[in-house]
Design goal:
By secondary structure, the protein is mainly α. It has one domain: 434 Repressor (Amino-terminal Domain). It is built from 5 helices and no strands. The chain is globular and about 35 Å long.
Length: about 90
């Protein structure tokens, strides 16, 4: 990726960061080329990864810590309460 693309990606992430932790996670995954399977591996649970992306479950502190350690996701970007599905 070029230096310009990295700057653009950083700006996009900063904009999403303020919105919602699940939106941020989805944007982070898209920018870094990670898949749902990668998320399942990082969280050690395919069902939890699916529930999070479908907004049926919020990220736990343990999940946030695993994503921070495994992928370098800024933990503070994932701490806010997400907009969950009804």
């Amino acid at each position: 990726m070029s230096r310009h693309a990295n700057r653009s990606d950083a700006i996009a992430l900063a904009e999403v960061r303020a919105a919602d932790p699940i939106e941020f996670l989805e944007a982070f995954m898209a920018i870094t080329g990670r898949t749902r399977r990668d998320l399942a591996d990082a969280l050690r649970s395919q069902s939890r990864a699916s529930e999070i992306l479908r907004r049926k479950r919020a990220l736990s502190v343990g999940m946030i810590q695993r994503l921070h350690e495994a992928w370098g996701v800024p933990a503070d970007a994932l701490l806010a309460a997400p907009k969950l599905a009804a």
